[in-house]
Amino acid sequence: MALQSLDIAKRSATTTEPPQARKTPQVAKLIDVSQCIGCKACQVACMQWNDLRDEVGNCAGTYDNPRDLTDQSWTVMRYAEVETDRGLEWLIRKDGCMHCEDPGCLKACPSPGAIVKYSNGIVDFHQENCIGCGYCVTGCPFNVPRISKKDSKAYKCTLCSDRVAVGLEPACVKVCPTGCISFGSKEDMQERADERVAELKERGFTNAGLYDPAGVSGTHVMYVLHHADKPGLYSGLPADPAISPTVSLWKGITKPLAMAGIAAAALGGLFHYVMKGPNDVSKEIEAEVDKELEGEK
Amino acid sequence: MIRDPSDLQRYTASERANHWVVGICFILLGLSGLALFHPALFPLTYLFGGGTWTRILHPFIGVVMMLFFVVMFFRFQHLNRMTDTDWQWVRRAKEMVNGDDHNMPIQGKYNGGQKLLFWFLGLAMVVLFASGIVIWRAYFSAYFGIGTIRLAALLHAGFATLMIIAIIVHVYAAIWVRGTIRAMLYGTVTRAWAKQHHRAWYRQMTGK
After folding, report:
1. Are A9 and A16 in contact (CB under 8 A)?
2. Yes or no, beta carbons of B51 and A111 under 8 Å apart
3. What's the pLDDT at A253?
């Protein structure tokens, strides 16, 4: 269901302009990884607000639990133990949908209105329009959407679009005990990040920085990273995410080219028939064959 | 039913049935595939009971098509080996399209164009089947890397487009060359048709 208080800036498999008269400020969630203590309150709040209950998994020797995003776990904490020039570091990143300004999932989706981007920047899946093809998984540069084994629909973090629409912050933001997650206008969050990055630099994290990747035209979930030069340290956060050129080709020029090619073939046939006429058997050959048959009798 | 005892048998009943199973599958796959390929054609999903049903049915129809295509392929492949005459025919195909077939080399059961189409369809089916498996999210995609899946999606769309164009040419050729469609409907062609378009095959069939 489209939330009436949020207008839509982009709609999957739709080639005309979506309704967008109402302008809403761009929002963003800022996750300051350097303040995260890995308590998983955000995971719990996400489950509670969205009425999700994942299956109890098993321990793989790390704190990652559940071990991956699923249709029931829209956010997971990823724990990485890495050796840096500062010694052993425990880098904990809250993973989930990044809410790209240029969403690969939306670009790939073939079902009109199954994926929308609201005018405030939130990318949302509308499962009632989802056909379960998994193209969103193919299109996502962050490996976020998950297809439910039960209903074959795609699920991911909604950035609590239902809460945001009525002026509340996302559930994970509300419960974070260290203030590591904050939510507001994208501009405010960028400012807040700049302040935090300056603090971190002062404390010796010379490569601290904001993760707001330009390859997807920025994201509406941003990270403050102490090692922004090496995002890969944080359980494989991509350094330069972008919609894959293969996906762009598939969902870009291929579509009009294919339509033009098919139309040209069909119309070419029609006009060929009209202009050249049918290829009939010639009278001479018909007479020859008749003669041959006469001879047989 | 025999309409004229002098008609020549071009396809057996079983060959015709085989061809039509493949043909029906192709139409269903083309419609459902285009529905999921271009937003303007998404309404075609209503023919299959909605988007989700289209997504569920398309790959299964593809498997059926592949099975019957393989049988048809091995039935006809020995008749489709390209010869020097076939290449000559292909080089002169433009004259034929322009409506002048006087200089066309004499053809056997199939001409060079039909043979090339046969081999292209064989290649397209292999690519479409393989890439289709990779992007069949419900059962197989989990076994492939994301790069492979993206490439498969692109190849699937590209080869499907080429195949649709090839089949339009195939169907149009059958309409254009009058007296052809009956070969695939009830199996026979007239002697004059055979002598006009496939003289070597005509001689082989009639000894004339």
Report:
1. no
2. yes
3. 94
Q: How far is B161 from chain A (nearest CA, A)?
A: 6
CA distance B138 to B174: 38
Flag residues of chain A having pLDDT under 70: 1-5, 297
Contacts of A283 in chain B (CB under 8 A): none
Partner-chain contact B161 A15, CB within 8 Å: no
CB half-sphere exposure, A100, CA atoms < 13 A? 24
- Beta-strand runs (E) in chain B: 8-9, 188-189
Give the pLDDT score at B25: 98
Summarised one tens digit per residue, pLDDT across range B110-147 is 999 999 999 999 999 999 999 999 999 999 999 999 99
Q: With beta carbons under 8 A apart, name residues in chain B contacting A15.
A: 39-40
CA distances from A283 to A14, A297, B7 (A): 55, 21, 17
How many helices (H) and strands (E) chain B has is answered by 9, 2
Residue B174 near residue B5, CB atoms below 8 Å: no
Which one, of A134, A129, A77, A58, lies nearest residue B42 by Cα?
A129
Give the domain range for residue B56. 9-77
Q: Is residue B59 part of a domain?
A: yes
**Which are the catalytic amino acids of B?**
170
Q: Which residue of A has its CA nearest to B146?
A: A138
**Among candidates A15, A254, A278 on the partner chain, residue whose Cβ is nearest the Cβ of B40:** A15
Task: Single out the residue of B1, B3, B5, B62 nearest to residue B36, CA to CA.
Answer: B62
Domains of chain A: 8-244 (3.30.70.20), 253-296 (no CATH)
- Contact residues, chain B, for A259 at CB < 8 Å: 38, 40
Q: Is residue B15 part of a domain?
A: yes
pTM, 2 dp: 0.92
